[in-house]
């Protein structure tokens, strides 16, 4: 059965025991350049899976802080072109100022969304703290992590994509989006949540990814009270989560997980110790 975002390709399988090779077909996750044009301005080119692109456009604009709410998002039109996809986004005219400023800082683009930012201060720009507080039992997190594979059709088919899931406080999965890029999967989820009128503060997010600073930043901007990742967190991710009031679980497995504790200044590099 075809799965959106996957394409069957021919392979020849070889065996270590000397058995004759065999030809077969296997589904690969589609990865393609997606050129994002916002209000007629070329903003970024991202490598992504061309599925759920309207969700992606909305979530991307929210993560980039180009819009204050989904109401400022007018439309998104995805068109397949010769070498990839064009994603034409229209925002309310009032957002032209932030759009132009952010576009000016993007000299080049990478899938992480940070590579083209001109100033280091823009990477660590101040963010409002997460206000929402949500009591979530460990059992709810384990439930969500255990059930996530059942909500990953593209992942099951290709074994090559990340998933981002929004869960209720009891660990029931409400929405999932998938992409070859972990950042893209999260943006798609945020856009889908906004379109479904689901508030980030009313649940938690599970990501099948390493917890990097950029993912923490997206969670903070969204107002998510708890972020769960199946792989480990980086130092900056843990530090920034604590600084902004984001509860962070990493290395989430069926039988254990790690909760990041408040960042301790004595573990900072010397230049940061001097600032604390």
How does this model look, in words?
The chain has 276 residues and is an alpha/beta fold. The protein has 2 domains: 32-123, Ubiquitin-like (UB roll); 138-266, Cytidine Deaminase, domain 2, CATH 3.40.140.10. The chain contains 9 helices and 12 strands. The strands form 3 sheets. A 6-stranded mixed beta sheet has the order 8-7-9-10-11-12. A 4-stranded mixed beta sheet has the order 4-3-6-5. α1 packs across α6 (182-195). The longest helix has 14 residues, at 182-195. It is globular and about 60 Å long. The termini are far apart. The model is unreliable at 107-111 and 269-276 (pLDDT under 50).
Number of helices: 9
Shape: globular
CA radius of gyration is 20 Å
Mean pLDDT: 89
Q: Uncertain regions: pLDDT < 50 for 5+ in a row? A: 107-111, 269-276
Strand order of the largest sheet: 8-7-9-10-11-12
Work out the strand percent. 25-35%
State the end-to-end distance.
56 Å
Order of helices and strands: EEEEHEEHHHHEEHEHEHEEH
CATH-defined superfamily of the largest domain: Cytidine Deaminase, domain 2
Task: Provide a brief overview of the structure.
This protein has 276 residues and is of the alpha/beta class. The protein has helices at residues 53-63, 96-105, 120-123, 138-147, 153-158, 182-195, 213-222, 235-243, 270-273; strands at residues 6-13, 22-29, 32-38, 41-48, 73-81, 84-91, 162-167, 173-179, 204-207, 226-229, 247-250, 258-259.
